[in-house]
Amino acid sequence: MEIGVSLTLLARLHERWVVLLRSLDAAALRRTFFHPEDGIEVSLERAIATYAWHGDHHIGHVLALRERRGW
């Protein structure tokens, strides 16, 4: 399957996330959940920030690879 299908799917998923996350107020963002891998309570605000950082981190890897390979 072409990579464009996966990129479109990911873009649409992020569009849905934006709509959901913009609908949350400060109280909702302070709510916590138990993170089973880390064994700690995490606020939704922190989880969102970590997710955003993680995405940027992966983009950095892709851009560096693109530059090294001359794509």
Key terms:
71 residues; mainly alpha; two-stranded antiparallel sheet; 72% helix; extended
Mean pLDDT: 95
Which series of helices and strands comes N to C? HHEEH
Strand order of the largest sheet: 1-2
- Give a count of the beta strands, DSSP E runs of length 2 or more: 2
What is the helical fraction, as a range of percent? over 70%
Treating each run of at least 4 consecutive H or I residues as one helix, how many helices? 3
* Coarse shape: extended
Strand content: 5-15%
Main sheet properties = 2 strands, antiparallel
The end-to-end span amounts to: 20 Å
Radius of gyration: 16 Å
Low-confidence segments, ≥5 residues, pLDDT <50? none
Q: What would you call the structural class? A: mainly alpha
Describe this structure as you would to a colleague.
72% of the residues lie in helices and 11% in strands. It has 71 residues and is mainly α. It has a two-stranded antiparallel ribbon. It is extended. The model has no long low-confidence stretch (mean pLDDT 95).
